[in-house]
Amino acid sequence: MSSAIFDDVKxxxxxxxxxxxxxxxxxxxxxxxxxxxDGDMTCSEGCRWAIGGGIPRFxxxxxxxxxxxxxxxxxxxxxxxxxxxxxxxRQRLERCLGxxxxxxxxxxxxxxxxxxxxxxxxxIQHCEALVxxxxxxxxxxxxxxxxPIHPYLIMQGDINASPLPLQYxxxxxxxxxxxxxxxxxxxxxxxxxxxxxxxxxxxxxxxxERGSKLGRLLSHLDYIDMVHPIRAVLKRMKPExxxxxxxxxxxxxxxxxxxxxxxxxVDKVARRLFPTACYxxxxxxxxxxxxxxxxxxxxxxxxxxxxxxxxxxxxxRTFLESLGLEVNSCQLGGNGVEARATVPRTGHQLVTPAxxxxxxxx
Length: 362
Ligand SMILES: C[S@@+](CC[C@H](N)C(=O)[O-])C[C@H]1O[C@@H](n2cnc3c(N)ncnc32)[C@H](O)[C@@H]1O
Ligand SMILES: [Zn+2]
Known about the structure:
Bound molecules: S-adenosylmethionine, zinc ion
Number of helices: 13
CATH superfamily of the largest domain: Vaccinia Virus protein VP39
Number of strands: 11
CATH class of the largest domain: Alpha Beta
Mean pLDDT: 90
Structural class: alpha/beta
Strand order of the largest sheet: 7-6-5-8-9-11-10
Shape: globular
Radius of gyration: 20 Å
Distance between the termini: 44 Å
Helix content: 25-40%
Number of domains: 2
Low-confidence stretches: 29-33, 353-362
């Protein structure tokens, strides 16, 4: 059944630039047995998109997401449940889905911004057919991690210039991604366009919103933080050099944060001066070596992401409703706001191509 779906998806791909059908030329050396034997996809307007390492690449050159590519290839397994032996990713995914993973049985799922595969390795084991798209070379790490588990389709491409069929997927999952794109609302719209009528969209987004009154008052202090000047420099550096710098920073700050993180009030101040990730208290059951790896990984993530936007739950809800979606849940949780919405069975207007607007990075 899933191979028929994969054939259908492959046959429905369009050129992300011209929205016309693609034809497929196998290279002489094509390796059989991988989902995409190496070759080229061409469009009638002259575009040529390579398939390399079993992955179609609908990208040209580097992008704002290149640092994510480095991050997930250097730390390909650090956040995977299959590596930590815990179920942190599963808990987050099930909370966002609003149901256990078993409910994905028989569903065709699109995962956008799949990174190294912390959610891919779980989705792939439960749904009928999984398709992944990610803008960066993270697709290589993802494919190495997840290909041995079960067949799936993965491609390198921008969800805002997507080759994938519209109104097709039962469930579209996009976690940890939208805040890092150039225009979060444009990305939400692009994601919703791939959900079939009656299907579900599962997303999250960074927020500055706080649950309590005191928290709301203190949120103004978010701007007093060493993160801002350090990130302004690092995100403009070559990702390899930026990673050297963030690893040095982690080595310097980690012994301090390891102590301060034991006292919440002290750590609230310390983390603004020593802005590295510190998960020793969040994951007390994990081997400290693994936690240190996570600290290195997330310090790089926080300090080098090119775009970092924040939205309140009200903003996310209002925007999803403006697209004509029924919002089933939209609340604070995990890394910010977590939302679940359903595309109505009739009458939604999401199929016209959406030109992504570009805004300045923050
Ligand atoms: C912070 S990582 C999260 C990865 C994974 N979802 C996780 O939670 O571990 C963000 C991912 O989104 C990808 N990404 C960013 N912009 C994208 C876009 N426009 N289309 C598809 N993927 C994108 C990046 O390449 C990166 O792998
Ligand atoms: Zn084209």
